[in-house]
Amino acid sequence: MTHLKKRASALALALLCALPLSACGGGKAPAAESTAPESSAPSQTPEPEPTAPAVPLVPWGTDQVVEHLFFHPLVAYPELAFDGDSEANGIDDYMVTVDEYNKILQHCYDNNYILVNMNDVWSEYTTENGETRMRRNTLMLPEGKKPLVISYDDTNYYPYMLDNGFTWKLILGDDGEIWSYGKDPQGKEVISQDLDAITILDKFVEEHPDFSLNGVKGCLSLTGYQGILGYRTQTDTDHPEAEFEANRQKEIAAVKPIVQKLKETGWYFGSHTWGHVRLSTISDERLQRDTQRWFDEVGSLVGPTQILFYPHGARPDGDHDQREPGPQFKYLQSKGFRIFASVGINSYEQVKKQISAVIIDRLHPDGTTLRWRRKDYLQFYDTWDIIDLDVRPNRAYDRNPNGPK
Hints:
By secondary structure, the protein is an alpha/beta fold. It has one domain: TIM Barrel, CATH 3.20.20.370. Helices cover 28% and strands 18% of the residues. The protein is built from 13 helices and 16 strands. Strands 2, 3, 7, 11 and 12 form a five-stranded parallel β-sheet that branches. A four-stranded mixed β-sheet has the order 13-14-16-15, with no helix packed on it. Strands 8-9-10 form a three-stranded antiparallel β-sheet. A hairpin with a 5-residue loop joins β4 and β5. α4 packs parallel to α7 and α9 runs parallel beside α11. The chain starts with 9 loop residues before the first helix and ends in a 19-residue tail after the last helix.
């Protein structure tokens, strides 16, 4: 079942086909010539459009939870993702489909959530003793709204995804906006804003501006070992030849304007480590080498960040970051990271007292929680209203109306 939504106007269709891809020929449609006669009547100032009354801002206190959801890349074509191969069950566990994602956004909006920037939720300050620490900020939100952070792990468009029903990369259209590029099950090139988590959220916020505080979207959590955003910007010791490096430089040049556009339109970036390494078991030497490589190959393209997302949800120093910070946690903090994000069953946070850092847990909408964790997500949506069992593999799910205890 293909879930590609068609553009609603001929102008938009012409815009898609103006993109420089082999599947879309021709140039831009010429502007229509005006046939209206010139008027000699004096121009009149149009009546001003009525404006909605301003919504008062009210404080969201430091003792009130800031919810946090995170997603992996979306399944655009379930017939490719859930085709029974060795990847199908893993995709079922960790991803949601385009249709499910659209419903989740709508339910969060209907439940009065508003997107906020992680960097606005916590900030660093200097104590009277001259030490730096993190603190939770009081957010000023439109009355009736509740804050929500959304982050997106692995927005790298790994090669394994290309044959399994995902979009392939982000591109800039001739309109200067972000689009996704990929191929449908028949191998036809598809340029769309309806198949990728990033472009879908862009459209949703455009249609529902009150879903975003000051235009913020979400945080993109990037590794580096297979490039970023669908562009193979990584170095590779197995391919030291000049041809590989020349292509890498082309990929770097192509992704830079996309990064810039994302920043201009409310997106921001975090590290997911360079090699998607498990921080609970990694050696100090490998951690330092991986961190520097992320700065060299990813940070150099997306800019500085204070946010680190733990791969696999695994905490550093043998999962001890919630207790006394160990040497690996202190090293990562010394490299500029201040917000350390894991995965949990609620939107947990702990502002560290002995070091300038805050650790948080995020909830994870995916096949696992859609099937088994209904009770934990009812503040956002009812999983029974979201999950699409018609396209997912025929696997067990919780049928208890109250969800698991």
